[in-house]
Specification:
The structure is a homodimer. By secondary structure, chain A is mainly α. Helix content of chain A is about 75%, strand content about 0%. The first copy, chain A, is elongated, with a radius of gyration of 20 Å. At the A-B interface, α1, α6, α7, α8 and α9 of A face α1, α6, α7, α8 and α9 of B. The structure holds a DNA duplex.
Chain lengths: ~200, ~200
DNA sequence: GTCTATACTTGGATAGAC
DNA sequence: GTCTATCCAAGTATAGAC
């Protein structure tokens, strides 16, 4: 399956991810990426056609890297507050490895680059679905399954992931205090717990 | 107080805001801004010194524009779920007028441009404080005042504002459905309501 | 498949005439 | 305070030798 050139393509994608992480979308130029990966700049256009297509390939790489991990961790989840706790852990992993920076930078670019919009939506939909499916499974056959809007909740949680990253990045590395993130997710967890406890269960049939 | 040149400075700032909104940080170049405002490109550097300083001045303009409106609307708020409802309305206003696009684009830029970090943090802190003060006021002297982490909640709500904007921008204008936003804030409102109802009130002194 | 060299465009910023 | 003209660095992308 491995064709000649695949190794180079992988190197280019890796350098693109690194550039997006370290220098953001503003610094992810063809020249900067090539310099970082120590290969010739023209190779980007030979292998990917355009810089935009390389950046999208980088997002794809990230997605496949993380999809397994997410599925695996979320499978153990059986209650909603548990989901929030595991989501907090996954969020921390992604923050540490810079994944969310890459995604938020690409999302910001997609906000005004219309050619990026549809491709980025395609790449995010599966992630929202993973969260949504987990929510539905966590609710199981409890009476709340029909009351909680799973898709909207999944959408909100995913949005929170991205928003938190942008704000946490504002803090200085030296003074950064991770407790804020944990607190946020713990807060969300107890809110969900409370909501489920106090929601009037639908009338029995 | 109005010095000569102030009118031009205002025009430049207005054009910068427009550019950030329409073309994002990637399209907010000195030349593009000058073309949009129909003034000479050199004026940006004469009046603001650098493009970065102009963009920060644009964020300042936005902040002062909106601060009054926020204070005014949030003053009427006296319960936490009410806060969430009003926050949802303010979010809609900001979305419609493109303010959040401007902020999210600048936040994305600040993530990797270290010279933007401290200035952007300075400009966001007051906003988080406004939300935090409102939360504290809404909790008033209820027994929950000591249990709810007001700062973290304010931080999370503000992050959600930004994250939602980036995601909602992915949808096509034609197919965009605002109900998602409202649902998200209504959801948050009922979660808060539920949390307050079910939280064990602290033991009386 | 990979490299060098280059075409062409756009970017931030400044000098100097008005 | 504003304009024109210009410098120079950096951007995307391509042609052609190897």
């Amino acid at each position: 399956m491995a064709r000649p050139g695949d190794q180079t393509k992988a190197r280019i994608v890796a350098a693109a991810l690194e550039s997006l992480h370290e220098e953001g979308i503003l610094g992810a130029s063809a020249r900067a990426i090539a310099k970082r990966g120590d290969f010739n700049q023209g190779l980007i256009f030979y292998h990917f056609g355009s810089l935009t297509d390389l950046l999208l390939a980088a997002v794809d790489e990230l997605s496949t890297q993380r999809a397994d991990r997410y599925e695996q961790r979320l499978e153990e989840v059986s209650t909603l507050p548990e989901l929030v706790r595991v989501a907090g852990e996954l969020h921390r992993e992604d923050m540490e490895q810079g994944h969310i920076t890459v995604l938020s930078q690409m999302l910001a670019a997609a906000a005004t680059d219309h050619t990026l919009r549809a491709p980025m939506r395609e790449r995010f939909d599966p992630w929202i679905e993973i969260v949504e499916r987990t929510i539905v499974r966590a609710l199981g056959d409890t009476p709340y399954a029909q009351v909680v809007p799973a898709h909207d909740l999944a959408f909100a949680i995913t949005s929170l992931f991205i928003g938190l990253e942008l704000f946490l990045n504002l803090e200085d590395e030296t003074e950064r205090d991770d407790s804020g993130v944990f607190t946020t997710f713990e807060l969300l967890g107890s809110m969900l717990q409370a909501m489920l406890t106090s929601l009037p269960p639908p009338a029995p049939a």
